[in-house]
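Working notes for the structural subgroup meeting. M.R. asked for a predicted model of this chain before we commit to crystallization trials. I am recording the input and output together here so anyone reviewing the notebook later can reproduce the run.

Input as submitted:
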Amino acid sequence: MNQERMSGVLLHVTSLPSRGGVGDFGPAAYAFVDFLAAAKQRVWQVLPLNPPGYGSSPYSAVSAFAGNPALISLERLAEEGWIAAERVEEWARLDETPALQTANLVAAAGRKQPLIEEAAGNFLDRAGDAERTRFQSFCQENMSWLPDYASFNVLRRRFGDVSWNEWPEEFALRKHDTLAVMLTEQGRELAVEQAVQFFFDEQWRALRAYCTERKVQILGDVAIFVNYNSAEVWTHPELFELDEKGGMVRVSGVPPDYYSATGQRWGNPLYRWGEMKERGFDWWVARIRRSLALYDMVRLDHFRGFEAYWSIAAEEPTAIHGLWVKSPGMELFDRLKKVFGELPFIAEDLGLITPEVVELREHFGMPGMRVLQFGFSGRGAQVYLPHQYVPNTVAYTGTHDNDTTLGWWKSGATAVERAHVDRYLQPIEKDEEIVGAMMRAAARSVARLCIFPLQDVLRLGSEARMNTPSNRMGNWGWRYETGALRSEMAAELAELMELTDRDWVEAEKAKG
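Returned structure, recorded in token form:
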């Protein structure tokens, strides 16, 4: 990771106040980047940009490679002439979401999708030579996943969005003759799916270029496991622990702990690591290649699972009766390093971490994560406090899975935690003071990178929480209000960066 001291903001793209009920790559995204630059923030951390699955979770995506079509800006498509501006304006007026109201991401994306597909059809019919050349190059560069994803999506619609294992057997098991007929009969639909992914790619590249001009890097996110009902599991069943009919044999999760007497049964299919290793980890090489095409840095979710994972029989209703199974993490990262060189990874190493996990992370020089909210419950939790940090660390006030700092302080912090905060940081006389105190502690630490959720920058409470892991529904919908990013907030954050030596402008001057 970059050796300079930096700071950044965590905000998923769907949380932008774009028109139409879901954040996207349109004007609000560019305004947010301008705010980051004014606040002297050098990193924008996003959650996975893949098409979300059950519960709108980006960590349970229907593809580990494809982009979420809902993030495509209709305004940008109208500017490029692929859809009439009047159509977009009419849609936006009918589909506005009130400020700070939780967005219904499924409904918003569903109303947006037909217009995106209409634009894709117009593109296929009217694109000029230059656009067609770029489109063909995109399709060629992504040949390893794009045709399969397009086929998966077309079939999902044909069979009413049920899981792929409920499709007719010839489609579920990818019988060659059946798929060949579909490719002929559904050629237009498949081309539209690929054009939609091209729109995603073009708009994201433009936004990233805008970030680069303003010295802002993108920190992306890769979930370790993939959704069972995904293009990847349907396409590559041999890489997952499935039976001959495609049913799951063993699934992912974590064992019982302090927070849950039954553990967490995530339900993702487990990898056949032996098969992956024999193939030179080609699937993971392709996945990381795609990630590095999208992001400057990558956060590896549930890094623990690359050393050992909790394996649960698929028929078990909870995570109680599982077992730890070793992963070939050392061999995997060795292979990735040979292919890509230095690995710009951040390890999500929260929770109960063994010495073997620490050894794996440190062997490849990956920074770990430290979350201030976790540091005040007692002596065993002090690993999350700044005096325990080392420079190769990413410090957070909280993550997307935490309550906001203000919400935690008001309703989640225990009496013991409150007392420890008063002693370690400062006496908190008004609730709002906790946010500034925590942000200053993270920024002052030796951690080379510190990240603030935008909710903390905006001093918001529990109403702005992004995700509650124990809740299956009702997550991921928070969006900030138009006009919330005020210049005085940017100035305050910029001043903190100057104070804590995280000001890139001054760093560049010092070099010169």
